[in-house]
Design brief:
Chain lengths: 177, 572
């Protein structure tokens, strides 16, 4: 099976000029559908895990597509926690950075179908991508109606939060806030 | 040989809205079936919870309409417990709701729907000089110079050349149903991008009043925000001034960008008046100027219209057991007293029972149960809800403001009111409503300032906050006009907890399957009779379904790394 695992520390931050004085940490997902809510749970854990300066802003983005554009376009660096598909991915924490993130605008039936990939497409077209962006996600194991993560996904929360913290710490050091 | 087309938006996880259409030999849609292919069971999650918390769960139902579900939820609890909210809270809720509506309509028009009428690829061929001349002839909007359009076109071409038009993948570019000249396409693409930027501003009103966004804080008994003109942490003079500025800019954007674009685009499509459908329209009304029970003060009035008859608006009472009912004859649920019997939401049941084929499947057996949506009916009639229903009910009731705006749009397009009964009419009604509601925002702001000036800073009524003050058992109904149409929450509270909760969302009305009398739902009826150029590129179907602004794909959200095609089209 081909795995989409990416090396975590391949990247070196080279740009240090910030524009917004802001790092956004965004959790996406629907907490009513099991592991769909992973991103929201992860941002909550992240927020509870450390005392960051005010420039690090944590946002529970829910499933708001287009309305989250501002959080993408008005920061210098961004962490996105989200559930990932395809579902065939092996259980684990996946990290994708910068150009690894796909951006596309689909024809769709409803504006509610907007995924974050679409916002990335728009931000790229507008030339407003943050200097650094990282998607930290896990493939869901249970998407049935009900509040609470599956034990497989819940067990990955600390690792997902730790990976986010490593990145945010790195950014805080590298950027001239 | 008759063909069947299936348009299924999300084939991967659970799917959402699926349309199956039967075409005759000349590729005209003979019949259509609309199916919600995802189960939403929020009602079950709410059972047994504290009714004061219901809004926080309800606002998670939907990816976009958080504020409207929170609003309907606090309203139904307040109705059940007999709570009157302070004037400031009523006005702030109106203002937040109006903000949601204008922002949502703007995003719908440019982001979801425009590309059903606008060919992005054709914009690459436009003459920027001509585009500038056209833009200046239809509006005073300042961003209309030759240089502006030239730069934008360059940016687009650069994007395409670098292989990144991928962001606009899966468009039916070059489809013969696109009628705009390249220059109008270019103007529309420019405003698509401007609207995306602008909507970020509007939403700040939600953040100021709701404390945060995207999930603003509501509160049973009022609003959680404090008003104090001189405090740093409350809604103060500075924040009010910011709200005023956003309201003014919103109105300008709608007047100078949205409405002129709508009229310019519609002008090329007024020969395409398909998609009218049912001709039955229902509104609960919204924007109370006194209390919610005083229907006469609702700025968007309540009522029903049957068979396109604008001479009569029938009174509606959503509390009345015989008026609003949901049956499940074609839905994947069972009712204890028979699936064909319509139940009022206060008697509602939510027992899922999937009997459809195992996914992935070729097609649904539409003679049997074929949707996860229940089948709401008003006095047994299938009804359309949404902007067109609101505009028509207000128009038929003789509302002077709406008559003027409708008249302006119709006369600019040189069409009569009968043109409103169409896909294009639905799209025009959304713009008309957006303009009207943006006007309401200014009105609510003035009311809020006037009330604060009297020294009234109250935003919360705590009299019945404590469960000890509640009756042993009570029922409530909360309503709002969400961007997509009439939204109702019905609650039954017993022993201080939620015993039953039923929600009838606008898209359940519009996307409902057949009822036991064989009556089609609004999407199904609207698609009938539409001719298609090419069944493999069902632009006409998508255009009509989009005109309702469907809200079915809302509850799920995952990051798709592959960029798989979201809408699949199959001819079977």
């Amino acid at each position: 099976m081909h795995l989409p695992q990416r090396a975590f520390s391949l990247y070196q931050i080279t740009m240090t000029e910030v524009k917004y004085n802001r790092i956004n940490v965004l959790g996406l997902g629907n907490v009513l559908y099991g592991d769909e809510g992973f991103g929201v749970e992860a941002v909550k854990s992240f927020q509870a895990s450390a005392d960051y300066p005010d420039i690090v802003q944590c946002i529970d983005g829910g499933t708001q597509g287009i309305y989250l554009l501002d959080y993408l376009e008005s920061c210098d660096a961004l962490i996105v926690f989200d559930a990932l598909i395809p579902l065939e991915y092996e259980t684990g924490v996946y990290v994708y950075r910068n150009d690894e993130l796909p951006g596309f605008i689909h024809r769709k039936m409803s504006s509610h179908q907007m995924g974050f990939s679409e916002l990335i497409g728009i931000a790229r077209l507008q030339g407003r991508m943050p200097l650094e962006i990282a998607l930290i996600g896990v493939p869901p194991r249970n998407l049935d109606l009900g509040i609470g993560l599956s034990s497989e996904n819940a067990a990955l929360l600390p690792e997902a939060v730790m990976k986010a913290k490593t990145l945010v710490d790195e950014w805080l050091k590298a950027f001239q806030f | 040989m008759a063909k069947k087309i299936v348009v299924d938006p999300i084939p991967r996880i659970e799917g959402h809205l699926r349309i199956e259409a039967k075409l005759n030999d000349s590729n005209v849609i003979e019949d259509a079936f609309s199916s919600g292919t995802m189960w939403r069971g929020i009602e079950l999650i709410l059972r047994g919870r504290d009714p004061r918390d219901a809004w926080a769960f309800a606002e998670r139902i939907c990816g976009v309409c958080t504020t409207v579900h929170a609003l309907a939820s606090v309203r139904c609890v307040e109705d059940a417990l007999g709570i009157t909210i302070p004037t400031n809270a009523r006005i702030i809720r109106n203002l937040m709701n109006a903000t949601q509506q204008t922002q949502d309509h703007l995003v719908h028009f440019y982001h979801l729907h425009a590309l059903d009428w606008v060919d992005v690829v054709s914009a690459l061929k436009a003459d920027p000089q001509l585009a500038s001349a056209i833009a200046q002839s239809i509006s005073n909007w300042p961003k209309s110079s030759v240089g502006y359009f030239k730069d934008l076109q360059k940016k687009l071409i650069g994007f395409v050349d670098s292989g990144q038009l991928g962001i606009f993948t899966n468009g039916y570019w070059g489809h013969p149903a696109y009628k705009l000249p390249p220059e109008v396409n270019l103007i529309a693409v420019a405003h698509y991008l401007e609207a995306l930027d602008f909507q970020k501003e509007i939403v700040k009103i939600q953040t100021i009043f709701g404390g945060k966004n995207p999930h603003p804080n509501y509160l049973v008994g009022g609003m959680a925000c404090a008003i104090d003109p001189n405090s740093d942490t409350a809604i103060n003079i500075e924040r009010l001034a910011m709200i005023k500025k956003i309201i003014d800019e919103t109105k300008t954007f709608i007047e100078q960008v949205y409405i002129p674009d709508l009229i310019a685009i519609a002008g090329y499509y007024k020969g395409w008046l398909y998609g009218g459908g049912l001709g039955n329209y229902l509104t609960y009304g919204d924007f109370p100027e006194t209390s919610l029970s005083d229907f006469k003060t609702l700025l968007w009035p309540r009522g029903a219209i049957l068979n396109k008859d604008l001479s009569t608006v029938i009174d509606v009472d959503p509390r009345e057991a015989s008026q609003i009912t949901e049956e499940v004859s074609h839905s994947w649920y069972t009712y204890s007293k028979g699936d064909n019997k319509g139940l009022h939401p206060w008697q509602g049941e939510t027992k899922p029972s999937y009997t459809g084929p195992k996914p992935p499947f070729e097609h649904l057996d539409t003679d049997k149960k074929y949707s996860w949506l229940k089948t709401p009916r008003w006095k047994n009639h299938p009804m359309e809800v949404g902007p067109l229903a609101r505009v028509l009910v207000a128009y038929a009731k003789g509302d002077p403001m709406i008559k003027e705006t409708v008249g302006m749009v119709l006369s600019k397009l040189q069409v009569g009111p009968e043109a409103l009964f169409s896909t294009l009419g639905r799209t025009a009604a959304r713009g008309i409503e957006c303009l009207q509601t943006a006007g309401f925002m200014g009105r609510f702001y003035d009311q809020l300032i006037a009330n604060i000036k009297t020294g009234d800073y109250r935003t919360f009524n705590s009299e019945r906050w404590e469960p000890s003050t509640w009756p042993a058992e009570c029922k409530g109904f909360g309503y709002t006009e969400a961007p997509r149409g009439a939204l109702g929450h019905w609650i039954h509270i017993e022993k201080k907890l939620i015993k039953e909760y039923q929600i009838v969302v606008p898209s359940t009305w519009n996307a409902s399957p057949r009822d036991s009398n064989g009556n089609a739902g609004a999407y199904e009826a609207a698609l009938k009779g539409t001719p298609m150029h090419n069944p493999e590129q069902p632009l006409e179907i998508i255009r009509t379904v989009h005109s309702f602004d469907p809200c079915l794909a809302c509850a799920s959200h995952v990051f798709d790394m592959n960029g798989n095609e979201i809408t699949t089209v199959k001819i079977v």
